[in-house]
Amino acid sequence: MIESSGRVFIETQDDAWDILKRLLENKIDPDKTVIDFSKSDWINFHLNYKGSIFKQTLTPSVMSGIVEYQRLLYQVIALVTKGDPKVTRLTDVEKETFELVFKVNEGSTDLLARAQEVIDAISGKVFDNMTSAHKMICVLAIALMFFGHLGFQTYLENNLELSKISAQTGRDKQLTDIIQQLAPSRAEKAQLLDEASEAVPQVQDIRDKSEEAFEGIVKTAGGVDELSVQGVRVGAETIRTLTQTTRRQAKKVTLRGRFTVSNVDTKVKSGFLIRFDKVGEDLSITANIADALLAERYRKVIERATFSKRPINVVITARQVGNSYLDAKVLKASTPRK
Questions:
Q1: N or C: which end of the chain has fewer CB within 10 A?
Q2: Tens digits of per-residue pLDDT, 146-182?
Q3: DSSP 106
Q4: DSSP letter string over 212-238?
Q5: Starting at the edge strand that comes first in sequence, how are the strands of the sheet with 34-36 ordered?
Q6: 337 Cβ partners below 8 Å, 6+ apart?
Q7: What CA–CA distance (Å, rounded) separates 196 from 24?
Q8: Which residue has better confidence, 75 or 240?
Q9: Full-model pTM
Q10: Per-residue pLDDT tens digits for 295-307
Q11: Using alpha carbons only, what angle is made at residue 78 by residues 150 and 147, rounded to the nearest 5 degrees?
């Protein structure tokens, strides 16, 4: 990331996450700062279809998924710039400006849409009823969730039942391993997006539309032996599992009770991650403490529970999708009274 005379050049996805964090911490003056995406080569939408029928060709089904992705992108742009998600709020000129143009590489069905100009165009728009900070947060959220790695990863994690996938093909097992390895990193970023959603409600809409957009890509990929989305490869068995799964809506829940601590990861950048096992129930959940004050307040309680293996009282908030709990955060931890 390069900063010069009030202009911030975002070169990597990590730069974008860092700027989002600094905006939420009020460490950037949005009225005196311009975010420049001209060096953001990562802002793109990359698809690769492999199969006997995919030789520089696309089926109507696949094309419908791409069209739906574009429609949902239009919706979030209309929402943040006009205050209304109806695509009809965008003029024909605006739709052309925000349209993704795909390049098909020779010899394969490999599609790449460079989206830097789209994000620059969104950033240059006047946003109705938004402060400069809220505008920047929304632009960053669109770039990261539609054109970064996290959007597709979030879709997969929210919809794949890992226990089913692990018994399937080696390639699908590799996908499971990737998701599990990236889970701590995703938890940090999800925490930032939770904070952004609280500050700017439209961010949650961007997250939801992103997941819906990636769902459309996967569920219209019939006849594919392998699909690659934003560099993540998905095998045919996983695609079938996802296609047969009804989209599960996440709901916010609060968990209270006695938990033991089975693992603590202090290596994440924001706070630390704790794995809790609920006493008397077959429930394990990994929760984050990102707030420095809360982390310090509950550190000794969690440390003692880790070494003693004795249960503690815990209050956790999370998003529940099916039987899974995502983006879990510790609100309170205390030692039970004797």
A1: C
A2: 999 999 988 887 776 544 444 455 555 655 665 666 5
A3: T
A4: HHHHHHHHT-TT-SEEEETTEEEEHHH
A5: 2-4, 7-9, 34-36
A6: none
A7: 7
A8: 75
A9: 0.73
A10: 777 888 888 898 8
A11: 20
